[in-house]
């Protein structure tokens, strides 16, 4: 990671040429194109829970956008494969950096595919297309006077690939009584380093960065992270080292025209967002219509260094940086030394793909760290997917109350439209509570869309779960299994109860597609909702209540697909241990 360092400049500094601080670009006329991205994941170890959470957030936003017909979209992810840490890890494993990266990158691709992450581009920084983009980007920085040769000295942390100021260090004592310095954030040991490298004139971009953020208050979102970046920009921004001596770091992209230097791993990695959209030739078709989903630990690199580098190269910053917090395990930070790093593949094996997706997105709150423990997973999934949603589908499609296996007709006489149910006496069979519940479900699609827009997927799922509970209450309250289908008046009310319930399920299934795609497909198929009827842009609810035709009335339901989501048993100790990496 790039961090500020203490530096003393050697030699004259060339003037910095005019830079771009505007958020406009040639892509502004492209309408609704959008690139969604995760960070590219460091290829020094297998994927864990945190990696998957970043990917699921981006995946769900990408799916939601596609279902809403919002225009062309791309979704990129991949692996960051350069740096001293990988060079050393490969040596320790008795293999070469390319072999190590190929193996670990394949693990990430496999894990994301297993979790139904619908990426359109998987970028590896070892690919020729990326290396070409990095060299061109470096050239743009150099041509515009943003780089100069400087000597510096500072504390370098190899595991974190970054230099750290004194304010971010702590002292530790080993078993022999030796005192040494570590990163206060990660606990990794640091070493004093002196080098002559290329420096990036970050100090020149404090005002342009502040203006960019003032002009775009949602550029970094949610707001607490926006405020954090503004706070950082209130302090001085020291210039940054953007290369390392090649004698120390061979596994990386050489600085163009200087074989003694290697481009710093974080500069190399950040350019991946341009590589995937065809930089330097065709990126204008997409850039800057990009939303980066990142963890809070790399906020400074994405919200300070990356926009500054882009401005320096004559490019606008990305449209938005969406930031999320971390997952802890039983209140503790995930750590290999604690043996509590969660293996997403094992979790998917026990809880299913959709089950684990739902749990992470339902419980994850971007603004604060969230805690993982197996008992919570089982409780949430059993309560909300198996019992509430699955039970509702099973009961409302049972042949005992719907022997024709059809989408029954709605009776306006049983459930007449009332402008104000709170002041009007019920004319049909529906109660004031029923009208209140129907209003809740009718407002759900816009509510869910608004929460997605605000990067609050967990709140969208909370609203859906509440409406599922209300629908169960409606169904239970009127006990359709007690009604006599052979009695004309009772049959009308029975069919109306089932119709309203199936309409609710259709809305829930449609809205849940970005989160639990397989389960939502199973639900919608049971209701005989065709693929072309599953979009979000034209989603309607209970049209017959508003005097409009319902295309599903009288339609034969789909085949019985069995239990929607099987109840889970409490994890055994062995199962819990098997989830640890």
Provide a concise account of the structure shown.
Belongs to the class-I aminoacyl-tRNA synthetase family. This protein is an alpha/beta fold and 581 residues long.
Structural write-up:
With 581 residues, the chain is α/β, with parallel strands linked by helices. The protein is elongated and about 90 Å long. 43% of the residues are buried. It starts with 6 loop residues before the first strand and ends with a helix. The model is unreliable at 1-31 (pLDDT under 50). Helix content is 40%, strand content 15%. The chain has helices at 49-67, 84-92, 97-114, 128-143, 206-215, 223-233, 265-270, 272-275, 299-312, 344-351, 353-363, 374-396, 432-453, 457-478, 488-512, 517-526, 573-578, and strands spanning 7-9, 34-37, 41-42, 73-80, 121-124, 147-157, 162-164, 169-173, 179-183, 191-200, 220-221, 240-241, 243-245, 254-255, 258-263, 290-295, 320-324, 327-329, 332-333, 370-372. This is Methionine--tRNA ligase, mitochondrial. It comes from Anas zonorhyncha. Belongs to the class-I aminoacyl-tRNA synthetase family.
Secondary-structure blueprint:
Blueprint: E1 7-9, E2 34-37, E3 41-42, H1 49-67, E4 73-80, H2 84-92, H3 97-114, E5 121-124, H4 128-143, E6 147-157, E7 162-164, E8 169-173, E9 179-183, E10 191-200, H5 206-215, E11 220-221, H6 223-233, E12 240-241, E13 243-245, E14 254-255, E15 258-263, H7 265-270, H8 272-275, E16 290-295, H9 299-312, E17 320-324, E18 327-329, E19 332-333, H10 344-351, H11 353-363, E20 370-372, H12 374-396, H13 432-453, H14 457-478, H15 488-512, H16 517-526, H17 573-578
Parallel strand pairs: 2-4, 2-16, 3-4, 4-5, 11-17, 16-17, 18-20
Antiparallel strand pairs: 1-6, 6-7, 6-10, 8-9, 10-12, 13-15, 14-15, 18-19
Helix pairs in contact: 2-3, 6-9, 10-11, 11-12, 12-14, 12-15, 13-14, 14-15, 15-16
EC number: 6.1.1.10
Enzyme class: ligase
Protein name: Methionine--tRNA ligase, mitochondrial
